[in-house]
Design brief:
The protein is globular. Strand 5 and strand 6 (about 355) form a beta hairpin. It has 25 helices and 14 strands. The chain has helices spanning about 5-15, 15-20, 40-55, 60-80, 85-90, 95-100, 105-115, 120-125, 135-140, 180-200, 205-220, 235-250, 270-275, 320-335, 355-365, 385-390, 420-425, 460-475, 480-500, 545-555, 565-570, 600, 610-635, 635-645, 650-655, and strands at about 170, 230-235, 255-260, 305, 340-345, 355, 370-375, 395-400, 410-415, 505, 525-535, 535-540, 570-580, 590-595. About 40% of the residues lie in helices and about 10% in strands. Helix 3 runs antiparallel to helix 4 (about 60-80), helix 10 packs across helix 18 (about 460-475) and helix 11 (about 205-220) packs parallel to helix 18 (about 460-475). Strands 2, 3, 4, 5, 6, 7, 8 and 9 form an eight-stranded mixed sheet that branches. Strands 1, 10, 11, 12, 13 and 14 form a six-stranded mixed sheet that branches. It has three domains: about 5-130, no CATH class; about 220-455, Aspartate Aminotransferase, domain 2 (3-Layer(aba) Sandwich); about 480-655, no CATH class. The protein is α/β, with parallel strands linked by helices.
Length: about 650
C-alpha cells in the first residue's frame, strides 16, 4: 500500500478516531496488499470498513451502517479512478457504480445487496441525496462554478474540496482547496449528520442541526451579540442579493439607489445581484434561470451608481476624491426621495479599502437612519473587533469563509445588526429569493422568511464548518505574531517580483483603518502584479494571456519541460487575474495576485511536522517557486501555447505513486 494513498485515506476518514475498529487491525502494519484485495482497491475496502464501524458506533444498525458507508466508499473510489490501474478498475465490486450514482438503486437491490429490511432500505433512500463523501456533499448547494470538471477533477476556481497538499497555494483572494484541517472538520459534521439520517431523523431536521452549528461558529468567530443575527448564503454574490432583499423590508415604497464601490473589483455578478437580476444560469438551489433576467419580487426600478476606485489609467484615485463622490451621490439620492444602499468595500480583489470606517461613521451621523450601509467584507481580512465596529454603525456586514479563511469556495454569510431583527420579523421577502435560499439559512425568528421553502443548504453548512476550523486556528495566533508573519510575506513578495524584470508590483495605498484596529489588519495581504508580454515587452499580457499563465501555474508542466522539472512539476494556485487598464493606456491588461491566507498565519496542516520557523521558511520557498514558475512559463510560451496543457487534481508524479512502506 502506498504511503500517499494511506495518508489521503486517513485524513478523509479521521482514522485516528477509528483505530479501535477491530476490522482495522487486519490492515495495520502491512507492507504489501492483502492477497484477496487488489492493490488499488485497499483504500475502498478500508473506507467501507472504517466508516461502517463509525456509523454503527453512533447507533446505526450494522447492515444499514454498511450500506450508508458503501455510498461514501463508492464515491471515494470513483473520484480516485484516475489513479487505478486497468486491472483494478476491472476488479471494482459491482455495488460501486449503483451506490455512487445520483439516482438511487431500487429498494429490492438494496435489500438484496446489503441484507436490509424494507424499512432500512426506505431510510437509506430517504437520506440518499445527503449521503456520500464530504467532498461530494460540499460540491452541492452552489451554482455551476462549484461543479467538478471531470477532465481536471477541479472546480471552476481551479481548486478541490479534497485536500491538495502538494499544491503551492496563495490563492485566498479567489478560492482555495480544502486543507486537511478544514476537511476533517467538515467530515466530522458529515458523519454526525449521516448517522442521524440513518437513525431515522428527518433530513430537514438533521441538516438544520449542521446549519445551526455553523451559525454558532460564525457568531463565536466574530464575537457577535445575542441580539445580532446571521443569514447564511451560498456565495458572496448571493449575499449581495440578500442585502438588496433586506432593504425591501425597510418599510418604504421609495425606489432604491444602490451605490456600489468598484464593482469591477468585487465579483462579476455583483452589479446584477445589486439590481435584483439573476447573475448566473443556475442558482444555489439548482434552479435553471435566465442570466440577467429580473428576479420575482425585486423592485424593477432599482438604480445603480458605481463609484470607481481607479482612474482610466489604472492608478488608484485619491481617497478624498472618492469619498467626496460618495457623499454627493448619497445626498443626491436622499434628496430625490430614493432609499439608498451605500456599499463599503473592505477589501477589493486587489486589496483596496473604501470608504474608510471613519467616513462611514461620519455619514451615519450626518444622515441618520435614512440610508442602509452594507459592508462588503467578503475577503474577511479584518479582525472581529472591526466587524463589530461596522455593526455598531447599523451596517450589514457581508463575509465569506472562502477567501482569507481559506475554506472551500461558496461559503457566505450576512451579519446583521440588532435593528435588522425587527425587519426580519415583519413583511415578506421577494418571492424569487426562494430560488437561492432555504428557510433554515435564516434565523428561526425571521418571519419574513416563512414563505421560503422548508429546509436548508447542507453543502453550504459543511463548507462553513471547513472554513471555521481555519478561523479557529487563526484566532489562536497572537495578533503580534500575525503582523510579524505578514511583514515577512510582503518582503518576500516584493523581493521576488523585483528579481523578475518581466514583473511589476502594482502600487496599493496603505489601508486607512482606525488606530484601534489591530496592526496585522492594516498590513497588505494581497499583492497584485503585471507581466510583460513574452513577444511584445512594450505591453503587458492581456486578460486572456494572464488567464493562460494562471492555468499553467496550476498545471504540472514537467511532461512538456522535462529539463526544468523541479519547477515545472510544482502546482501553484494563485488568485485569478483581474482586468486593469494597461499602463500605456491601450486596452486592458491581466494582473495576477498572490495573497496571504489564514493558513499561512496558523500553519499549513500538511507542514505540521515542521518547527515554526522551518514551516515559514518552507512557505516562503514555495512563494518564490511561484515566481520562478511564472518566469519558466514566459520563457516557454510558444511550446506551452501549442500544447495548451490543462490542470489536474494531482501532479503527474503522484498519479501512480511507487509502492512504498506505509
Amino acid at each position: 500500500m502506498t504511503s500517499a494513498t494511506l495518508r489521503d485515506l486517513e485524513r478523509q476518514l479521521l482514522a485516528d478516531s477509528f483505530r479501535r475498529a477491530p476490522e482495522f487491525a487486519a490492515f495495520r502494519g502491512l507492507k504489501a496488499t492483502p492477497p484477496a484485495v487488489p492493490q488499488g482497491l485497499v483504500g475502498l475496502h478500508l473506507r467501507l470498513i472504517l466508516e461502517a464501524e463509525s456509523l454503527a458506533a453512533k447507533g446505526v444498525p450494522p447492515a444499514l451502517a454498511r450500506a450508508g458507508a458503501a455510498r461514501a466508499a463508492a464515491q471515494y473510489i470513483l473520484a480516485e479512478a484516475e489513479t487505478l490501474a486497468p486491472e483494478d478498475r476491472a476488479a471494482l465490486p459491482g455495488w460501486v457504480a449503483p451506490m455512487a450514482a445520483e439516482i438511487p438503486p431500487g429498494s429490492d437491490y438494496l435489500t438484496r445487496e446489503f441484507s436490509l429490511s424494507a424499512a432500512e432500505a426506505g431510510l437509506l433512500l430517504q437520506a440518499w441525496p445527503h449521503l456520500g463523501t464530504a467532498e461530494a456533499l460540499m460540491e452541492t448547494g452552489g451554482d455551476i462554478r462549484l461543479a467538478r470538471d471531470p477532465k481536471t477533477a477541479l472546480n471552476g476556481y481551479g481548486c478541490s474540496h479534497r485536500p491538495r497538499p502538494w499544491a503551492i497555494t496563495f490563492a485566498s483572494s479567489t478560492a482555495s482547496s480544502s486543507s486537511e484541517r478544514g476537511y476533517i472538520a467538515a467530515d466530522k459534521m458529515r458523519l454526525r449528520i449521516t448517522a442521524a439520517l440513518l437513525r431515522g431523523v428527518p433530513p430537514h431536521q438533521a441538516i438544520r442541526h449542521a446549519i445551526a452549528a455553523a451559525r454558532r461558529g460564525i457568531a463565536s468567530t466574530f464575537g457577535l451579540g445575542a441580539d445580532e443575527r446571521i443569514i447564511l448564503a451560498a456565495s458572496g454574490t448571493d449575499t449581495e442579493l440578500l442585502a438588496l432583499a433586506l432593504t425591501h423590508l425597510a418599510g418604504s415604497d421609495k425606489p432604491i439607489l444602490n451605490i456600489l464601490i468598484a464593482p469591477e473589483e468585487t465579483g462579476r455578478g455583483v452589479p446584477m445581484a445589486a439590481r435584483g437580476l439573476h447573475f448566473a444560469v443556475d442558482t444555489a438551489r439548482g434552479h435553471d434561470v435566465t442570466f440577467e433576467a429580473p428576479i420575482e419580487g425585486f423592485r424593477p426600478d432599482t438604480a445603480l451608481a458605481n463609484i470607481m476606485l481607479r482612474q482610466p489609467s489604472g492608478a488608484v484615485r485619491p481617497q478624498a476624491e472618492v469619498e467626496a463622490e460618495i457623499e454627493a451621490t448619497l445626498a443626491a439620492g436622499i434628496a430625490v426621495g430614493q432609499r439608498v444602499i451605500l456599499h463599503g468595500l473592505d477589501l477589493s480583489k486587489t486589496g483596496l479599502l473604501a470608504p474608510t470606517p471613519a467616513f462611514l461613521a461620519k455619514l451615519r451621523q450626518s444622515h441618520g437612519p435614512h440610508f442602509d450601509i452594507v459592508v462588503d467584507a467578503c475577503q474577511a481580512r479584518l479582525s472581529p473587533a472591526s466587524v463589530r465596529a461596522y455593526l455598531a454603525l447599523d451596517a450589514v456586514v457581508l463575509v465569506t469563509g472562502s477567501k482569507f479563511f481559506t475554506g472551500p469556495p461558496f461559503a457566505g454569510a450576512a451579519l446583521l445588526p440588532a435593528s435588522y431583527t425587527a425587519r426580519l420579523r415583519a413583511g415578506t421577502l421577494p418571492a424569487g429569493l426562494d430560488a437561492y435560499f432555504g428557510r433554515d439559512e435564516f434565523p428561526a425568528d425571521a418571519k419574513a422568511a416563512k414563505a421560503l421553502h422548508a429546509g436548508g443548504n447542507y453543502g453550504l453548512s459543511l463548507r462553513w464548518h471547513a472554513a471555521l476550523a481555519e478561523a479557529k486556528a487563526l484566532l489562536r495566533v497572537p495578533p503580534a505574531r500575525r503582523a510579524e508573519i505578514l511583514r515577512s510575506f510582503g518582503e518576500t513578495v516584493r523581493a521576488a517580483i523585483a528579481a523578475q524584470p518581466a514583473l511589476t508590483l502594482l502600487d496599493s495605498p496603505p489601508l486607512s483603518r482606525t488606530e484601534a484596529d489591530e496592526t496585522w489588519e492594516r498590513l497588505p495581504t494581497i499583492f497584485t502584479f503585471s507581466l510583460r508580454a513574452p513577444h511584445a515587452p512594450a505591453r503587458c499580457v492581456t486578460p486572456a494571456e494572464a488567464r493562460q499563465v494562471y492555468v499553467w501555474l496550476n498545471t504540472d508542466l514537467s511532461p512538456l519541460l522535462p529539463g526544468e522539472s523541479w519547477v515545472a512539476a510544482r502546482i501553484c494556485h494563485i488568485g485569478q487575474p483581474v482586468p486593469l487598464a494597461q499602463p500605456a493606456g491601450e486596452g486592458q491588461m491581466g494582473a495576477l495576485r498572490v495573497s496571504a491566507g489564514a493558513r499561512l498565519l496558523a500553519g499549513e496542516p500538511s507542514h505540521r511536522n515542521l518547527a515554526a520557523q522551518a514551516r515559514l521558511a518552507r512557505e516562503f520557498l514555495d512563494l518564490n517557486t511561484v515566481f520562478l514558475k511564472i518566469d519558466l512559463i514566459l520563457r516557454n510560451w510558444d511550446k506551452l501555447a501549442a500544447a495548451n496543457p490543462i490542470p489536474s487534481y494531482r501532479p503527474a508524479k503522484l498519479a501512480a505513486p511507487d509502492l512504498v512502506s506505509a
